[in-house]
Amino acid sequence: MGDTSGTKDTTGAAGAGGMYGADAAEIYEQTHRARGKDFAQEATDVLRLVGEDCGRRSLLDVACGTGNHLEFFAGHFEQVAGVDLSEAMLATARRRLPDGVPLGVADMRSFELDRTYQVITCLFASVGYLDTTDELAAALRCFGRHLAPGGVVAVEPWWFPATFLPGHVAADVVEWDGRTVSRVSHTVRDGDFSRMEVHYLSAEPGAGVRHFTETHRARLFTREEYEEAFRAAGFTPRYHPGVQSGRGLFTATAA
Q1: The pLDDT value given to residue 248
Q2: DSSP states of 26-89 as a string?
Q3: Inside any domain, residue 85
Q4: CATH at residue 97
Q5: Which residues contact 207 (CB under 8 A, 6 or more apart)?
Q6: Is residue 57 part of a domain?
Q7: What is the residue range of 43's domain?
Q8: H-state helical runs in the chain
Q9: Dihedral sign (CA 46, 52, 56, 59)
Q10: Smallest Cα–Cα separation from 151: which of 121, 178, 122, 110?
Q11: What is the total count of domains within the chain?
Q12: Which of 11, 77, 103, 162 could form a disulfide with 59, with the two C-beta atoms 3.0–4.6 Å apart?
């Protein structure tokens, strides 16, 4: 999300992590839950599509955010871990997750961990913040370096050009702990990207009203571009439509 002093352009993978401060991370949590996002059901769908053949010993959640999906996965795997570009988001995740769950700041295109995992997930369309097919393939190669033999990668895409709805408007009002937040967004097509302008009004009795905005720019990769990037990274992909708020899910194994 953004800071409270102006507009944050979250263009690109680097910007995707730097946009969330401590206050915004909390607003992120509450507004998405109020909008009906069911993290547990999404995680359940991921487990169903990943299957059990790869094992349920270890899972790495890339771009784990505040740990909502990871919290569910922790109940189904012996070991879980998460990485994200935003330290503020990870701070919220640490409060949610059991003690000892490894969480670290990392870029999905280039992180280096000294172990592998049976399952690697990247959800909530976080790969949309990657600007090019080369960056997408680089991220998938990075996932591949951390995937155990026989493991599975699960990636939620952003909207495809054919399924994107330009001009979409969303509005929500959320109340918790004495705070009221209204969120209004408008999304348009910008070449090969979507561009979503989000405005927030946050009101508290002791703090008054604050206004801040965000600009989210996400790449509208085609389904074919995703599949080509998976193959370039050494994977055999499969696309599952209908899940993850209608965006679908890619699962992939080593070719």
Answers
A1: 98
A2: HHHHHHHHHTT--HHHHHHHHHHHH-STT-SSEEEEET-TTSHHHHHHTTTSSEEEEEES-HHH
A3: yes
A4: 3.40.50.150
A5: none
A6: yes
A7: 34-160+222-254
A8: 12-18, 22-34, 39-50, 68-73, 87-96, 133-145, 223-232
A9: negative
A10: 121
A11: 1
A12: 77
Alpha carbon separation from 35 to 30, 195, 203 (Å, rounded): 9, 20, 19
pLDDT digits over 18-58, tens only? 345 556 677 777 777 777 789 999 999 999 999 987 888 99
Averaged over 222-244, what is the pLDDT? 98
Tokens matching residue 15: 């910007």
pLDDT value, residue 2:
23
The answer to whether 174 and 183 are in contact (CB under 8 A) is yes
The answer to whether the Cα torsion of 16, 21, 26, 31 is positive or negative is: negative
**pTM higher than the cut 0.85:** yes
Tokens of 146: 């951390």
One-letter amino acid of 89: M
- Give first-to-last CA distance, the chain, whole Å: 37
- The pair of structure tokens assigned to 163 is 């399924």
Tokens 């102006």 — which residue?
6
Report residue 16's pLDDT band, with 50, 70 and 90 as the boundaries.
Answer: very low
Q: Is residue 148 part of a domain?
A: yes
Is 4 among the domain residues? no
